[in-house]
Amino acid sequence: MNYLMAIDAGTGSVRAVIFDMSGNQISVAQKEWTHLEEEGVLNSMSFDFEKNWFLVCECIKESLKSANLSGEDIAALSATSMREGIVLYDKDGNELWAVANVDARADKEVRYLKENFKGIEEEFYKESGQTFALGAIPRILWLKNNRAEIYERVAKISMIGDWILARLSGVIATDPSNGGTTGIFSLKNRDWVSEMAAKVGLKDDIFPKVLEVGTLMGSVTKETSKITGLSINTKVVMGGGDVQLGSAGLGVVEVGQVAILGGSFWQQVVNIDKNTPPPLDMNIRVNPHVVPNQSQAEGITFFSGLVMRWFRDAFCDMEKLEAKEQGVDVYALMEAKAAKVPVGSYGILPIFSDSMKYSKWYHAAPSFLNLSINPEICNRASMFRSLQENAAIVSSINLDKIREFTGIKIDEIVFAGGASKGSLWSQIVADVTGCRVKIPRVTEATALGAAMAAGVGVGIYKDIVSAAKELVVWDRTYEPNMENKKVYDEIKIKFQSAYEAQLKLVDDNITTSMWRAPGL
Length: 520
Hints:
Elements: E1 3-9, E2 13-20, E3 25-32, H1 49-67, E4 74-81, E5 86-89, E6 95-99, H2 107-116, H3 120-128, H4 136-146, H5 148-151, E7 156-159, H6 160-169, H7 176-179, E8 185-186, E9 191-192, H8 194-199, E10 216-219, H9 222-228, E11 235-241, H10 242-249, E12 258-262, E13 266-273, E14 285-288, E15 294-301, H11 304-315, H12 317-326, H13 330-338, E16 349-351, E17 367-369, H14 380-406, E18 412-416, H15 423-433, E19 436-440, H16 445-457, H17 464-471, E20 474-478, H18 482-507
Parallel strand pairs: 1-4, 4-11, 12-18, 18-19
Antiparallel strand pairs: 1-2, 2-3, 5-6, 5-7, 8-9, 10-11, 12-13, 13-15, 14-15, 16-17, 19-20
């Protein structure tokens, strides 16, 4: 039993990744999944736990086969997931209802809470670092109001990564880094605050035990062993939120360290002491870290990776064929073409995610501004580069906001996730932020963080910090081009002004918001 497995349930896909005890990635199996709007429920994003469990099992089996390993070779496993997504269970531990991370169905419930409990969002934010935008309370209230027969049967709540571990071990529990994103949680105490639920008329006895990341939960059950190929001797260990475990997988485990995780969504995180109060303007979220004495200030850029997938699938059929003929990844091919486009992408301004405004969070309609009818200037390569630049620019704005309330000086950023595979995108991040950018050798940092947790659970590593210092190795470094930064600083100002104008079009019901937090 010389290997560790991580199961990473992201927004756009689920994967099973096998590592050896030195943190080297041995194999990976991935399945894309989608979270569909529930029929008749506007802005909903349901999580199909039956279909998605099948995909999880397929990934586990394929990763073992790809590595030429048996279940007996896996000493321990853990899971990580998109935060905010929740699963509700009955008294027997059977799933009743689940939603993915940006489910925004609870519009009326947020309005009700704000109108009938004056100041309650601000009160809860001071304790938890979360607003109602992605929180669990409005969603559970929606369930009570609209699916009362299901709500009455609810006996437990967990996060999606916890659900995977519960399926594997039979134990329902959560950890601070993931459970904290429900907003029913204390940053300082790293535990549920059930009084929050009671205060707004919800059940206060549905909260499972909280285990720190790396806590041994049990072993794979006989039933799950049969359908996954895992051994009943494989240990199941508490994991955590994808961003926080991803940070550990990047070696970002000390106060003041900074990371950008470039996945389906982009997150910009800065480690802070757990006693640091959240900002008064409520525009940045604060989450418990996987390191017990720390929290993380976090900015979020919506859909950056998913927008790239959309652009690839909607416009790049020619590049797909070309990439197939050359035996290369289509994104690598697009980057090579985009590298020939000048800094600033001929002034093209993508309008997708806004910077984080957690207290009043909505987005403009997706669009590109400043397009030209000159095909030499406006083409797939220049639009592709503009999307890369825009993701970095929005990340830079979010980091500026974190600097303001923490006072932390940022001069080095660890960059990981799928986006960091591209050398052009990595250099753009350095140029936009003016910071040195370091890329870890294992870019699937979230999965490595989950593998670290698994190793801690069976005594291979002392704790998450020790594991990070032992396992994280660096692949390459990018120094910022300060002349390019001057160009990007100007674009950043233009983008913010353009985005405000685009939000005005949404406010005037001329265009439709890409995403809107419930209650706005």
